[in-house]
Amino acid sequence: MKVEIISIGTELLVSDILDTNAAHISRSLREVNVALTSKVTIGDDPEMIADAFRVALRRADLVIATGGLGSSKDDFTLEAVTAVTNRHPTTESPGIQGGILLGDSIVGSTGVMVEEKDGVLVCLPGNRREMSYLLETEVLPYLQEQLSDDIHTGWTLLRCVGVMESSLKQDLADLNANAEQRITFDSFAGQTNIRLWAKASSEAALNEKLARLKTAVAQRLGDHVFGDESDRLETVVLQQLKQNNLHLSLAECYTHAVLQKIIAPLPDAASHVQLHPAQTWQAVATALKLDDLTGDNLSQWCRHAANALRSQTDTDLSLVVYSNVTQGGVQILVTLASPHGVSVTQRSFGGHPENIDQWALTLGLTHLRRWLMVHN
Fold first, then answer.
1. N or C: which end of the chain has fewer CB within 10 A?
2. Where are the alpha helices (DSSP H) in the chain?
């Protein structure tokens, strides 16, 4: 099977940001022994996107496109798909007649797959976190079903946080020495997906080998592993809150409300998480009546804000996530107030602002998850 990647977005074309999506997809295809024929980058032009789709479908069996699936004036991917396939757009998800919805719009971004006689066209969101999730849970399993071989091959996933990829490679090096099994890693913004790949002479032997490998890796990594396959960090954390019947209040400053946007749509989130609307330290201070405090001592301010938020919302826990721009980069402060006191995580980053927001998301959720595990 031949696969082609099309990256969509003027910001990629002019190199305002690096195309990490295409790199991740190509690496994932190589890991599952699928041939990549070409990678193409197209700006936000509907006619050129459509032309790129037509050419790619002539060369490849499956085309994976990323970007341009939003609702802004520069998002033309679905328009180009309708032009190429002659299918009608629809008001219902996934937005095109006969298209197959990828993912779940309630818990994250979605994609669309269109099966044509000339090939299959897969469109994924440009957001790195959402794109990789759909690739792992929807696209690669679809590709696996299309591949046939006398030797059975397959893979499974473990998802972890709080440990560097270099440490993972060192800790699991001996498990990677077997030629009939392989462990690969994909890290982004503090989360790492660990793909466990194996081959065997039968389906039963394959499943047994993968199960043994999965158990071995999970035992070594302990509570760094938060889930597998289709698990998401935010849904795991919400489930912990529900199981312990705890209620959380959440405030963010300068993170573009990244945690709130992820958590708010989740089923039952409103029953356990209270979201504060303020997005700046001044707005938070005014709402919480912290008139005698300034942002000069940021760590102290976040502690006071977290305690005040918990007290005034009458919740079990309160979480304040603050993104602070400094001369040396961006500082993320995560402050959690609980009946046991205040705990803090603090990290500094450089890079594209969108990626830093994703770091804020991971740090905030990971800090909360750690607390819930310790105080379960």
1. C
2. 10-13, 20-31, 46-59, 77-85, 128-134, 140-146, 165-171, 203-221, 233-243, 258-263, 269-272, 281-287, 298-313, 353-374
What gap in Å lies between CA 124 and CA 12, rounded to an integer?
15
Strand ranges for 106-189 from DSSP E: 111-116, 119-124, 152-161, 181-188
- Residues 360/228, Cβ–Cβ less than 8 Å: no
Nearest in space to 131 (alpha carbons), one of 275, 1, 263, 20:
20
Q: What is d(CA 236, CA 241) in angstroms, rounded to the nearest whole number?
A: 9
End-to-end alpha carbon distance in the chain: 48
Q: What does the pLDDT look like over 96-148, one tens digit per residue? A: 999 999 999 888 899 999 999 889 999 999 999 999 999 999 999 998 888 76
State the burial class of residue 297 (Cβ atoms within 10 Å of its Cβ: 0-12, 13-18, 19+).
exposed
pLDDT in tens, 313-329: 999 999 999 999 887 78
Fold of the 152-228 domain: Alpha-Beta Plaits (3.30.70)
Could you report the per-residue pLDDT of 140-178, keeping only the tens digit for each? 999 888 876 656 888 999 999 999 999 999 999 999 877
Q: Is 47 within 8 Å of 17 (Cβ atoms)? A: no
What pLDDT shows up at residue 295?
52
Tell me what pLDDT residue 105 has. 87
233-374 carries CATH number 3.40.50.150:
no
